[in-house]
């Protein structure tokens, strides 16, 4: 199979390539859903991980982005982004396979798992800039928002199905066959890595437009994005944003597993609620980003995520499990809605502000600059969680009456709750930097919010009122009829 780029790609081949990119997203998401997030944290805790080791595991993917300079050198040397992306992902996902075999064969030291995952993230970080620059040339700019929103919807739906299935299996094994739990984690890593290797084959079949990268000195190339004032403002916002988010995110699962004591299936169901919320909204965010601007979407979604972080600070304060679950449910739903818009907009605005001939340089500089902040945040988060482990802040309100006395927990902060509140402070500071970023076609976010509210109100009426249900039934019946004709 030839991996050489093409000077011209016919429109039909472009469309075929976009379908392959979506399929690659699904196969890769199977790997991600089985080997990262809550499952990786739960596996690490099973091996006796500390807060600091959890932080190191979370920091490894972003720390390795510092090596993306190698990707630029390789693209300049070979001018073949597809080959670089495919071969690096092939190598990285093989290391993921080694982790699975290691977990099945024995109960390894966690440091060995961290080492193998380091190499997996190392090769993935080299593949990432090549993939981003390749997609910028392959996907029509007018469809960036809608295409990646649609792709994201497929990948999140895949994640929900795989995660829930694995969580139910693990809860069953924990209860009835606890000695096999580590073997199940190993099998999940093997299955995930095999799916990822299939994704490499799919990417190898995806066409690549021939690109041109200036032969200027490498350091002179890097000076271009660093001398772009608007791009520097985007880097400042993006760096502080990833620091704020990664300070707390790796410890959400730890908090639910250890502080609240939720089963894995409950945590995954909450995660699915978040993902489904994202799936429902991501296409809308994509359409609004194409129609208005990515910055307008960020100005709406970041405050919502800020509220979610503050909500995490109150997690676990109720004596009733269902009250805590209700709070966590709404936090996950609102997080899914907001992060769908935030992640999509950050990818799109980075691509949009990068000149075509220097796209890989701009995107790599952004990834390298933010990598340090992303990697440092969870390590600092782990240290802060350890620092606050024996410190508590409790604020109660008491009702004393002749018949009954009642104590209401208003605030109960411990090691993780403190961390979530600190993260919220940094998110607020980052949101202030966003106002300085300029984007072509920018629309006042109040106007976008007004239009979005009107559209959502209309859609909610259609979906949840009786007349809307009838219309939905007719819609599906018509679709089925068309397929059978």
UniProtKB/TrEMBL annotation:
InterPro entries: MFS, MFS_trans_sf, Sugar_transport-like. Gene3D superfamilies: MFS general substrate transporter like domains (1.20.1250.20). The keyword Transmembrane helix applies. The keyword Lipid metabolism does not apply. Keywords: Membrane, Transmembrane, Transmembrane helix. It holds the Pfam family MFS_1. The chain crosses the membrane at residues 39-63, 84-106, 112-131, 152-170, 182-204, 231-252, 264-285, 297-321, 327-347, 368-388, 408-429. One of its GO terms (molecular function) is transmembrane transporter activity. This is Putative major facilitator superfamily transporter.
